[in-house]
Design goal:
4-stranded antiparallel sheet, binds adenosine-5'-triphosphate, Rossmann fold, about 30% strand, 8 helices, 7-stranded mixed sheet, binds magnesium ion, alpha/beta, 2 domains
Length: about 300
């Protein structure tokens, strides 16, 4: 059981209906994430990143395909089960710093709130637990301040502590550094690494930050609603690190979906002159894709 991935997505489709139009936000997304992994998800605007996170968070269900977390099938959840799942398993950090925090509660109170809602202890117990999280995110000096008196980076640190307050097994973050300057963004990404190391929380971060490939072991590229490429760090470094390293430590993989389809970059096809048909030949540990002389008609 423990060797099962923490999160398994199998051929997920998500179709939104707007008036008479159908928008396909996810089209056959496959992905497996192990317990305790930190994964970054990158992709162009509209490629389906937020849709994917919302499904993992139990806010939304796929139109087709399967999603399971710790062996539990999210698609079959009733509304009540989904809410219980969100409360107990999921922490969420939004891009908009203002969306993460209640403006009329202090840092400490913001972090205590999810604990109280989850019955994780009385006022005193939750205060102690909140203080531990405040220390983890490095805000000891700010615990009695109101969110508006914090910098953007400090607000996101608080948001991460709030996201961890219900002791989730999965922390999801949707462009958590989108509103921050480069240095602050870098520090926040490092904090996710620290959280992962200290608490072993599985973390999925959606980001546009080009530095991310040097900061996590695994980056997943979503293109047109499905995973198309993965970039892995060759050194297998598990933690986010403060220093960017050289690109020769990165290894790029093309994803093959559950139906055996793979996406070949257009420039490679053009270089070889492959248009709409190709010949395949397997040879040892190679698969060769040849230009075909076949002509239609
Ligand atoms: N509630 C909705 N109703 C209709 N269409 C939606 C809805 N949510 C998302 N979409 C559409 O689904 C597609 C994927 O949207 P999504 O928000 O997941 O993209 P994204 O990768 O998060 O983009 P961004 O980087 O801009 O945040 C887009 O075409 C979007 O317009
Ligand atoms: Mg988005």
């Amino acid at each position: 059981m423990s060797s099962e991935p923490h999160i398994v997505c199998n051929d997920i489709f998500k179709i939104y209906k707007v008036a008479d139009l159908e928008v396909v936000a996810l089209r056959g997304l496959d992905l497996a994430i192990d317990k305790g992994e930190v994964v970054a998800v990158v992709g162009a605007s509209g490629s389906g990143k937020t849709t994917f996170l919302n499904i993992l968070a139990g806010y939304d269900k796929p139109s087709a395909g399967g999603v399971s977390v710790s062996g539990r099938d999210l698609v079959q959840f009733s509304e009540k089960e989904a809410e219980q799942y969100r409360r107990s398993e999921i922490g969420f950090v939004w891009q908009q710093t203002s969306r993460n925090l209640f403006p009329y509660l202090t840092v400490l109170e913001n972090i205590q709130l999810p604990m109280r809602l989850n019955n994780l202890g009385d006022k005193k117990t939750t205060e102690l637990k909140a203080a531990e999280l405040i220390e983890l995110v490095g805000l000891q000096e700010k615990s009695n301040q109101m969110p508006e008196s914090l910098s953007g980076g400090e607000q996101q640190r608080t948001a991460i502590a709030v996201g961890l307050a219900n002791q989730p097994s999965i922390l999801l973050a949707d462009e958590p550094t989108g509103e921050l300057d480069d240095q602050t963004a870098s520090d926040i990404l490092d904090l996710f690494g620290k959280v992962n190391k200290d608490l072993r929380t599985t973390i999925v971060i959606v980001t546009h930050d080009p530095q991310i490939a040097y900061k996590v072991r695994r980056v997943i590229l979503i293109q047109d609603g499905k995973t198309s490429k993965e970039i892995l760090r060759k050194d297998g470094y598990q933690r986010i690190t403060g220093a960017a390293s050289t690109s020769d430590q990165l290894e790029e993989y093309t994803v093959i979906d559950s139906n055996g389809r793979l996406q070949i970059p257009t420039d490679m096809l053009e270089d070889i002159g492959i248009t709409n048909k190709a010949k395949l030949e397997s040879s040892g540990d190679f698969l060769k894709i040849h230009r075909s002389n076949y002509k239609n008609g």
